[in-house]
């Protein structure tokens, strides 16, 4: 039987991703989303409710659900869909771990359509470094150009400092101002849209003190690059990065990442998640960031996932949603 959990703290399974963690649930609620925390004997996960218009809404399960035993997978999904229908949900958006799990879900619901979502919410391809090596071994495994840029930044006098963020830390907002300024500069340079400023403040307020860090690169008395990193169990996760248009020749982002890797090792982390890349699946506009990340461990194999899918419960609502997206895209070109 599915059980909604509202007040008590969720247990943490070693299999769960940080996007299914208690802290991420708190953050989503601070960001204004309704989140259903679900627990059964077979699984534990959170579903984020997104309201689109009028009575049209959907559930999103980031990298979920995580099922403890495969033999219970069908029961969990059946109960999940029952709950979704009860809540008036039009579709359930999910991200299976692999193709086999996706096919099993298709088999569970032969009378329902499973569609590829219009876009992937989380990256399909992740680049995760193994930190169970010495710093010297990690450096030697990098591309020569990456090592050179790290040394260049040090030689030029770039300084790196870490600021702990989290609930109860009064200096959080002041320190985040550096990041907020740089993220807007980065967005303008790359022609991308970023989250509103209070998104990052709410993120900082959702994590226990010391679990989220802001790393700042300083050059000639000015902050020229900043990264947000979360420490979750044995993994450090690079969430967001930003840099100034000025002083790009001193290669501050390379030194920032290297110091973050070393800090992750100091904290006992065994992995460093650099986030999304486009190696096995080509994506326009991802060439530069992919090249940057690969440079830290060119021999590392990326992790490829099937992507984001929609289990359609109300076909007409879903059809209208897809049509409206196409119309919006047409007029925004």
What is the third-level CATH name, the topology of the largest domain?
Aminopeptidase
Oligomer status:
single chain
Sheet having the most strands = 8 strands, mixed
Radius of gyration: 21 Å
If you average the pLDDT, what whole number results?
A: 89
Brief digest:
The protein has 333 residues and is an alpha+beta fold. It has helices spanning 22-30, 73-86, 99-108, 135-141, 144-155, 172-190, 197-206, 252-266, 287-294, 315-332, and strands spanning 3-5, 34-39, 43-53, 56-61, 66-67, 91-94, 114-116, 125-130, 159-165, 212-219, 222-232, 235-243, 271-276, 303-304, 309-312.
Detailed description of the structure:
The termini are far apart. This protein has ten helices and 15 strands. The longest helix has 19 residues, at 172-190. The strands form two sheets. Strands 1, 2, 3, 4, 5, 6, 7 and 15 form an eight-stranded mixed β-sheet that branches. The chain has a seven-stranded mixed β-sheet with strand order 9-10-11-12-13-8-14, with helices on both faces. The chain has helices at residues 22-30, 73-86, 99-108, 135-141, 144-155, 172-190, 197-206, 252-266, 287-294, 315-332, and strands at 3-5, 34-39, 43-53, 56-61, 66-67, 91-94, 114-116, 125-130, 159-165, 212-219, 222-232, 235-243, 271-276, 303-304, 309-312. The protein folds into two domains: 3-122 and 306-332, Aminopeptidase (3-Layer(aba) Sandwich); 125-304, Gcn5-related N-acetyltransferase (GNAT) (Aminopeptidase). It is α+β, with helices and mostly antiparallel strands and 333 residues long. Helix 1 (22-30) runs antiparallel to helix 7 (197-206). Strand 2 and strand 3 form a beta hairpin. Residues 1-16 have low confidence and may be disordered.
